[in-house]
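Hi,

I'm pasting everything inline rather than attaching a file, because the server keeps stripping attachments. The sequence lines come first, and each chain or strand is labelled.
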Amino acid sequence: MKKEIKVTPIKNGTVIDHLPAGTALRVLSFLKLKNNPITIAMNVGSKKQGKKDIIFIEDKFLGDKEFAKIALIGKGATMNIIKNHEVKSKGIIEIQDYAEAIIKCINPNCITNAEKMKTKFIIKDRPLKATCYYCQKTMDEREIVESIK
Amino acid sequence: MEKMPAAKKQKILMGRVVASLFFEPSTRTRLSFEAAIQNLGGRVIGFSDSSTTSAKKGETLSDSIRMVSRYADIIVMRHPLEGSARMAAEISQKPIINGGDGANQHPTQTLLDLYTIKKKFGKIDGLSIGMLGDLKYGRTVHSLAYALAKFEGVKLYLIAPEQLKMPKEIIEDVKKNLKIEETSNLEKFLPKMDVLYATRIQKERFPDSMEYEKVKNVYILKEEILKITKKNFQIMHPLPRVNEISDGLDKTSAALYFEQAANGIPVREALLSMLIGKKKKVEM
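And the predicted assembly:
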């Protein structure tokens, strides 16, 4: 059976592809987009993943900080930067080993929840874990996903 | 430091000011730091009750540290929030000594614990050490576990009720370098231990007082334990104790806890000396 995705291609913007199925809305919640036109495709067929989500964001070129957040939720997700209908750059969104100001510490007694300061986490993959540089609390994958700011 | 003549010691911090900022109650840590500072000829400024400071007016810790680091040469601090000392170290112009940050770490206690063990046994490598009681909220045992992992062949017995077990992330961090046994049965491993490090079940760290009531008397060490322990077996405790070590043990050869508390002075003297740069390496 031929697989088709019926969405209008974007002229300028970012396409986030190969997100784990069901994660697109969570990704959008922390991208804090304002009035950009957005198209979401959820639970679409994928040869690699079985099912996946895709987000098309018009007129917005995501930066390193946003990709660092997406990497924590969507292992293996890819990004395409589109300019004038052409793919200008593309790649896999990699997990960084250090995260600054993108996750909130879940420890209510952590200094980062009391002072105006950036959080810092040491990230380890397989399994995904984030350790707070300040209070040394380690968060698992579920806790990390819930704590992305 | 213990062998250094008093007159020589007095010159180490002469003309220096050390800030002692205790945002949370302390007896031994604060007093031994302040005694150490005075033994080294330094002067102390600070407080032991944060309700008398601008913290009460809502001043942030970072502002307090920025200010105090301009008044003092070294800052010793204890704070109820975890990670507070590390944050302070990032913004302070002067060295910060962590005198305890919430339930996280208590590194100077660990230095004196290591010194006490080394002094008693002549070594730390290869010893069998038990940790008893509140291993979840007890910052002294967290710091000590990390420190023991730096030595060779140490066996660690973690004895705690289910609710107060050592955090799994700490065990993950240290298990490569320590042989670890976890249990709630003290008697089973007592005969194998060289040292038993007992801790108080800390009422103030429990979010729920009912949970505290369930576990507060779960381990009480009495003289009878000495019938099954090794000849040179030693009991340590960061103090204060409530009832986890009976008074009957105080006069036995196993009671190391008062000597341990006394070791806080030379260890903290050594640390202050190193930080002020008078000596790169200090013999204790």
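The radius of gyration of chain B is 19 Å.

If the labels don't parse on your end, tell me and I'll reformat.
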